[in-house]
Write a structure and sequence with these properties.
It is a single chain. By secondary structure, the chain is α/β, with parallel strands linked by helices. It folds into 2 domains: 7-205 and 381-401, Glycogen Phosphorylase B (Rossmann fold); 215-379, Glycogen Phosphorylase B (Rossmann fold). The chain contains 13 helices and 14 strands. The strands form 2 sheets. The chain has an 8-stranded mixed beta sheet, with helices on both faces. It has a 6-stranded parallel beta sheet with strand order 11-10-9-12-13-14, sandwiched between helices. The longest helix is centred in the middle third of the chain and has 23 residues, at 150-172.
């Protein structure tokens, strides 16, 4: 009789778009290679599904947190889970009954996550888990906190923040936890919090069958950024100012942005800056649609305040596109001067000058293109990351014991 396939619960974020869902899809493929069935759970935001959670004003009504099921990631079972007191951010992943029920159904427990907090249910219950973490909790949200209304800022400063910092340390120090960081920058940040080394670094690999160079499609002076550019952390206004400077000096620059479903999000801002004719916005795109766009770019530009890695930049490098980036964390691992691109400060004139030095020098651009492609092949190949993941997973969960 064929043995029952082991089942893995993956605690993650709401599966919409962005870096974490990209990471999660790749983990799904690896689990399938190992004959493991994935199942997914995440905190369902109160703003999107208010009936699942129990806010302060609803406690007296006798309601309890519940979950909703749906199919995600090409047909796998997923559950959006509510929380007690969702206004208090640290409650989102506490292992109440819906979490415990799902955890008890599964043989393996993983977290694929932006910050470590998605691993809360496993750490709190004292069970072994493997977590792939993109960024420390606090730096991931610094810019969003600035936009909170005053009451929420005060709640965050005096209550949510201290509790969440404690919870993050607890997760990172959990005896049964094994933490893989998405980049060297992420590992450094997590190690400073945990006061212990992380268990490994695993870059998001790039699929060479989807992302590869096509030099004949490159359009000189077409630059781009792919990511959720409406997020304040992405600091997209810096890139828009650099484009304005270069256009004003007579350079034929064009900008493409990919990643926001609302492609009109920047319309008023672009009009006020007088560059709406220079910028084209695409929604979030799957890899098969994104790759042909990246192949046309002369340069990928990261203007962010903070990035755990910036997966799309690695995808661009696999297409032979050099990268200019602010010194924002993760990209500093692969944006190497005179090899793959150039790092710059967070000043629009400095960013514009860095773009000019590459786009206006075709020999240098070609040299950086070759270097970017070579770096991805050596450091972010599926083979490298697959080996890291399989080793840690099988050391933590030997399949012959499941």
């Amino acid at each position: 009789m064929r043995r029952k396939r082991p089942k893995a619960l993956i605690s993650t974020i709401e599966p919409v778009d962005g870096g974490v869902p990209t990471m999660t899809r790749w983990v799904v493929d690896l689990l399938q290679e190992l004959d493991i069935d994935p199942m997914f759970a995440w905190y369902e935001p109160w703003s999107k599904h208010p009936t699942l959670s129990v806010p302060i004003h609803a406690i007296i009504n006798g309601r309890r947190p519940s979950k909703v099921s749906c199919k995600v990631y090409e047909g796998y079972q997923g559950y959006g889970i509510g929380a007690w007191l969702p206004e208090l951010e640290f409650t989102h992943y506490l292992p109440r009954r819906p979490w415990r029920e799902l955890i008890s159904e599964c043989d393996l427990h993983l977290a694929v996550t932006g910050s470590p907090l998605c691993a809360t249910p496993f750490a709190r219950m004292g069970i072994p888990f493997l977590a792939w973490v993109a960024t420390p909790w606090e730096v991931d949200r610094t810019d969003r906190v600035k936009e909170f209304p005053l009451p929420r800022k005060l709640l965050d400063k005096w209550f949510n923040g201290p509790v969440l910092r404690h919870l993050e340390r607890e997760i990172l120090r959990s005896p049964g936890g094994r933490i893989l960081a998405l980049s060297r920058y992420t590992a450094n940040g997590l190690e400073a919090i945990a006061q212990r080394p992380m268990d490994g670094i695993m870059l998001m690999p790039v699929d060479p069958l989807q992302f590869y160079p096509d030099p004949e499609r490159t359009t000189p002076w077409k630059v781009g950024f792919s990511g959720r550019y409406g997020d304040p952390r992405k600091n997209i206004n810096l890139l828009l100012k650099a484009v304005t400077i270069l256009s004003g000096r007579g350079h034929p620059i064009r900008l493409e942005l990919v990643g926001e479903q609302d492609t009109a999000k920047l319309r008023q801002r672009l009009a006020s800056m007088g560059i709406e004719h220079l910028v084209h916005c695409h929604p979030h795109l799957p890899p098969a649609s994104l790759a042909p766009i990246l192949q046309t770019w002369d340069l990928f530009v990261i203007p962010s305040h903070q990035e755990g890695l910036c997966i799309a930049a690695l995808e661009a490098m696999a297409c032979g596109v050099p990268v200019v980036s602010t010194r924002c964390g993760g990209p500093e691992q692969y944006v190497l001067s005179d090899l793959t691109g150039q790092l710059t400060g967070s000043d629009s004139s400095e960013l514009a000058a860095a773009i000019l030095r590459i786009c206006d020098n075709r020999d240098r651009r070609q040299q950086l293109s070759a270097g970017a492609f070579s770096w991805v092949c050596s450091h972010a190949s599926p083979e490298v990351s697959r080996g890291i993941f399989r080793r840690h997973l099988l050391e933590l969960f030997p399949l012959n014991t499941l």
